[in-house]
């Protein structure tokens, strides 16, 4: 694959080997390879983008040949041993440059970095066909390992970090491999010390500059050396991360207690103890069985878990690791879901007038059918994507899909409104209001055919920029609603400033309305306050007739929830509407035609809605537990 090839080339270029002068250390290895096979030609061949360049060569006059049909290129690409007894008998290489110059035999062993990238080959060539023995290939493989060791020593990064004076990650990986050979099966713990969160580092760099991190690292290195004592090795494995191994066969609880004590002592002596939050991750290691790179990964995972623990020391949890692995998989796969038809879809849940029981709108809920994992709960994938760059294209997909369906229904005469939840990320876009209007034009819909829902937290998070976008939307005639009311700031100043006319009471207040007197008092107060300020009120998550009756008595205008209907596919929802006779078919009027040919809402004062995140959670049987969890 092209991506893998670019990564391979990048690994080669980082070593700065190409077009460097000859080296006696490489030449000795090349001569030994030639002698083992008793062949006239041998080379350390590196596979560049369009050439094979020889770092060392015996019996070869030129320093490079074209990569096309060069056997060494195949070795580098596959990282597998290649033996060609007779080039002229091989369909691929019979017409190669080597064959044309008289080469008949080839044997090559890959030169592979510790990350698994093939750099090229240590190869031997002959002018007569021949076979190879096991002893010869073992010798060639040993010499290839010597070439890679020489490359690492001469051209790779050094093993000592110049800032901390500690051995680095490369040495940690090598030492762990060596211990696996020397003491297979021995149990230890790998410990990773993470000095600070990313936001703390950014704040320190912004205020004090790079010297802030330098001083912190040097201070931590001194403390770690002192804590480990003589004969123990500490490793500087990342910019602000250190690692070390426990003594053999430690008792778990006692060792974790020792680490907690060590961390407390180090923090008390740290010059930045009030500005940084240090965490320790611990992962069990069985020498000889554990992949050294995976050891660092799991230790880092444990360190991140430690930030949420009381004592900032955490033992690696396979269950937590699987959860994070699944989250990463979902995040990585969701981008493809946006581009590939059939994975994402909208389902629809009625929104009902409390007094009459008539359906006055719908919520469209996002669903994802993963090609391998099946149906993924919106309560699982939406919180993952809403804090990433995927939030904006997801909202665009929902806007376009919802308006397309709405336009289709209106052509059939269904008088319906939909609302779309807007995330904090959308309110950061300077052209968001304009793009909403473009979607309305694309689908020939009136501005009041939709309603955009915003959470209190999303608006407060973006301040003036968010208010600018919302005012532009209101000026364009797009209705706005306050979503998840009661879970965010809920300030009177906020209610007065926001250009919305609908308040949606969060389902957490409605869930136990029929049983909890305090919830009844809160909901009654919210409804009264909202009415006094000129808002229309919608209750979310109504799941019983008793709750619906209470809301009607309190003067709540609209409600939605399982008591009325569960989410339905688009065609099922349409049939439900017609069958229930709650939203009759009608024909477009002349005024509708003037606005784009489609009927507008029959009651301008009502504001039915299509909530993306919150309603998606409700429709899946899950609850939104965090204020401001929106994505549109």
Give me a quick take on this structure.
With 632 residues, this protein is of the alpha/beta class. It contains 23 helices and 21 strands.
Count of extended strands: 21
Shape verdict: elongated
Mean pLDDT: 85
Span between N and C termini?
35 Å
Q: How many DSSP H or I helices? A: 23
Low-confidence stretches: 583-632
Can you walk me through this structure?
The protein is an alpha/beta fold. Helices cover 45% and strands 19% of the residues. The chain contains 23 helices and 21 strands. The chain has a 9-stranded mixed β-sheet. A 6-stranded antiparallel β-sheet has the order 3-2-1-6-5-4. α16 (456-475) links the parallel β17 (450-455) and β18. α2 (24-37) packs antiparallel against α5, α11 (318-339) crosses α12 (378-385) and α15 (432-442) packs across α16 (456-475). It is elongated and about 100 Å long. Residues 583-632 have low confidence and may be disordered.
Highlighted features:
single chain; 632 residues; alpha/beta; 9-stranded mixed sheet; 6-stranded antiparallel sheet; 21 strands; elongated; EAL_sf; GGDEF and EAL domain-containing protein; Rev_trsase/Diguanyl_cyclase
Question: Can you lay out the helices and strands and say which pair or pack?
Answer:
Layout: H1 2-14, H2 24-37, E1 41-47, E2 51-58, E3 64-66, H3 71-78, E4 82-84, H4 97-100, E5 105-112, E6 118-126, H5 134-154, E7 167-168, H6 169-182, E8 187-194, H7 198-208, H8 210-228, E9 235-238, E10 241-245, H9 252-269, E11 279-286, H10 292-306, E12 313-315, H11 318-339, E13 344-353, E14 359-370, E15 374-376, H12 378-385, H13 391-411, E16 418-422, H14 424-427, H15 432-442, E17 450-455, H16 456-475, E18 480-485, H17 492-497, E19 502-505, H18 507-510, H19 517-532, E20 536-539, H20 545-554, E21 558-559, H21 570-580, H22 590-594, H23 613-619
Parallel strand pairs: 7-9, 11-12, 16-17, 17-18, 18-19, 19-20, 20-21
Antiparallel strand pairs: 1-2, 1-6, 2-3, 4-5, 5-6, 8-10, 8-11, 9-10, 13-14, 13-21, 14-15
InterPro entries: Cyclic-di-GMP_PDE-like, EAL_dom, EAL_sf, GAF, GAF-like_dom_sf, GGDEF_dom, Nucleotide_cyclase, Rev_trsase/Diguanyl_cyclase
Domain EAL: 327-581
Protein name: GGDEF and EAL domain-containing protein
